[in-house]
């Protein structure tokens, strides 16, 4: 999947978001070894130092960890991964609700729109 990085936002933050999403969606499973910094940087078409910075931030968050001679791995803490998923989902919902309120849509109308949209999506599956 292409990285599609946007030059208007810090690249390392977009890399963090992308790797988080890859972990949450299961592209990288708990315990999986990540490709090398060099390989990831080449795939994303970024400087290896930028990739290194992003991966260091992910290590601080606990989503990945390093083993000195073996490389970087995805945490095996499924609860941490689930918590990250909930946090990202909550942020998306908050942004959506704030945008709907800017459009002048009431909370009840938001609920109704969501219910209708979910029902339509379920009918198309």
Automatic annotation (TrEMBL):
CDD domains cross-referenced by the UniProt entry: WHTH_GntR
The keyword Nuclease is annotated on this UniProt entry: no
Keyword Transcription regulation belongs to the record: yes
UniProt signal peptide: none
Record GO terms (molecular function): DNA binding; DNA-binding transcription factor activity
HTH gntR-type domain ranges (all copies): 9-77
Alphabetized UniProt keyword annotations: DNA-binding, Transcription, Transcription regulation
TM ranges: none
Pfam families: GntR
The protein's name in its UniProt record: HTH-type transcriptional repressor yvoA
Gene: yvoA_1
